[in-house]
Amino acid sequence: MEETYRELTTYLRRLALLGSSNSLLSWERETFMPEGGTQLRSEQVSLLAGVQHQWATAPRLGELLDELIEADLGPADGPTAVNVRQAKRDYDLATKLPQRLVEDLSRVTTLSQGAWHRAKQSNDFSAFEPWLDQVLTLKREEADCLRAGADAPLYDSLLDQYEPGMTTEQLKATFGPLREQLVPLVSAIADASDKPAADILNRDFPIDQQQAFSRKAAAAIGFDLDSGRIDESAHPFCSGIGPGDCRLTTRYDEQFFNMAFFGTLHEAGHGIYEQGLNPEAFGLGMGQSVSLGIHESQSRMWENLVGRSHAFWHHFYPEAQERYAALKDVPLEQFYRSINLVEPSWIRVEADEVTYNLHIMLRFELEQQLVAGDLKTADLPEAWNALFREYFGITPPDDAHGCLQDVHWSAGLFGYFPTYALGNIYAAQFYNAAERELGNLHDLFASGQFAPLKDWLNKNIHSRGQQYLAADLVKVVTGEEFSADPLLQYLNHKFGEVYRLSN
Predict the structure, then answer these.
(1) Considering only CA atoms, which of 434, 483, 482, 428 is closest in space to residue 460?
(2) Share in percent of the chain as helix, strand, coil (round to 5)
(3) Alpha helices in 277-339 (DSSP H)
(4) What's the per-residue H, E or C state across 98-117?
(5) H-state helical runs in 332-412
(6) Rounded to a whole number, what is the largest CA-CA distance in the chain?
(7) Dihedrals phi, psi of 192, to nearest 5 degrees
(8) How far is CA 354 from CA 267, 348, 382, 420, 433, in A?
(9) Which of 297, 243, 303 minimizes the C-alpha distance to 268?
(10) pLDDT over 70 (residue 488)
(11) pLDDT tens, 199-254?
(12) Which residues are catalytic?
């Protein structure tokens, strides 16, 4: 068995190298590749995806897994059992997909992302709509290949790729009550008489200072810049290329503070997770993240629970005032309230903590309809605007601020959006558990000590790899069942204070 297991792990690590090469090509496409290279890049990634699929479905890999899955691998949550179990899951899923479909998806989504970028810039949904149609056709075929049974929703197959074990019905059971409890909070905030000043954040913030300050903050919370880098792209993201190489992107607006700073903290949270994975388990279950929801919990925690906290700015605000003349006349308390402003907005990535989940629920509703074929792509802008009015009471001024704002659907990432809201829920539970063990995190942050939380996350979440499904990991780490209650308690407490609702 030891020889068989050694052959398996060697094979899986080489397979992971193929995947990391494709990730590197995708990162470069979004950062430095000239637009004229889009067609060539689509052919490159399609070829590489096909080779990767051949390796992922090779008969020898199946033989190794069949032999090992019947063997005594020790404890179910031990490294050997985890690595074999996760490899078997990946193999079973990969062998359900024809290579032609894998290559087509890679090629079409590469071209589609280029079309989306151009359509967003020109605010022309009609130019993107045919590409979205192509992507959806391929994603429906993929979902049909992967689904557990004829009666299973297509959407479940796509969701399971990003949040293993989660179903559409479970999401509905979580999101429905969450929305019902968020609406009264949003209403109370809207009616509050003492609102933060929004214009403080729309002053002159030189981009060179934003770059330096964001970079320093990312390093302070634990992102290792010797093993990572921060660049610029149309849509911020994190690419974990592999051990020692994690790449973040952000975007800048000289007249808006929040975009780059909190976007960088968000992506740095993802990066800290990637850098916290066990490098010796590269390509194996114990060296990969649990789910995108758990991944998102790390980015949302550093961006919001830490980065938008009063304690964080008690430490960083003197430097912010030194860097930006626009903040010299702004007291800390006023700045803190401004970065926690709550109001309906068009753009998801710039949304406040309270309304953010409503952005996710909107997309969850629409993409279920798109995947099921109940909503035609040509009707998406109208459906988006109607649901946006229902959720937020405002209508996007154009499609660039509406259904064209996110890159995800052009990349074929249907089933991805719900993980953002799940990340907020997981983050609140993990944060509470960390504070129970580490003591008052507010005092640590106020004195610039972020390493205790990072080390706690490394130990309890990152180093565990795919040892447990997300909901099981929550229970192991926190001792509690998965629940949105801690998130709601956090939001009500924090924004009750920011908006002085008790007054």
Answers:
(1) 434
(2) 70, 5, 25
(3) 292-300, 310-323, 332-339
(4) CHHHHHHHHHHHHHHHHHHH
(5) 332-339, 353-372, 380-392
(6) 70
(7) -65, 140
(8) 20, 12, 25, 13, 22
(9) 303
(10) yes
(11) 999 999 999 999 999 999 999 999 999 999 999 998 899 999 999 999 999 999 99
(12) 267
Bridge partners for 249 per DSSP: 231
Q: Which pair of tokens denotes residue 64?
A: 């190794």
What is the C-alpha to C-alpha distance for residues 124 and 105, in angstroms, rounded to an integer? 23
Domain membership flag for residue 232: yes
> Cα–Cα distances in Å, from 2 out to 61, 71, 172, 338, 465?
15, 11, 44, 59, 22
Structural domains counted in the chain:
2
- Mean pLDDT within 466-492: 97
Choose one of 112, 146, 180: the last residue of a domain. 146
Domain membership of residue 151 (yes or no) is no
Which of the four pLDDT bands, split at 50, 70 and 90, describes residue 28? very high
CB 499 within 8 A of CB 194: yes
Closest CA to 364 of 185, 184, 164, 168: 168
CA dihedral 465, 467, 471, 475 (to 10 degrees): -110
Residues in the chain, total: 503
Containing 242, the helix (H) or strand (E) segment is: strand 238-242
Task: Note whether residue 163 is domain-resident.
Answer: no
208-212's contacts with Cβ under 8 Å and 24+ in sequence apart are 209/323, 209/324, 210/252, 210/254, 210/257, 210/260, 210/261, 211/252, 211/260, 212/323
The whole-angstrom separation of Cα 348 and Cα 334 is: 24
Lowest-pLDDT range of 69-83, 140-154, 231-245? 140-154
Decide the pairing of beta strands 245-250 and 238-242.
antiparallel
- The CA distance from 405 to 368, in Å, is 18
Segments forming the whole domain that contains residue 42: 2-146
Residues 6+ apart with CB under 8 A from 245: 20, 227, 228
Q: Cβ distance 358 to 392 under 8 Å?
A: yes
Distance between CA atoms of residues 286 and 468, nearest Å = 10
In a domain, 179, yes or no: yes
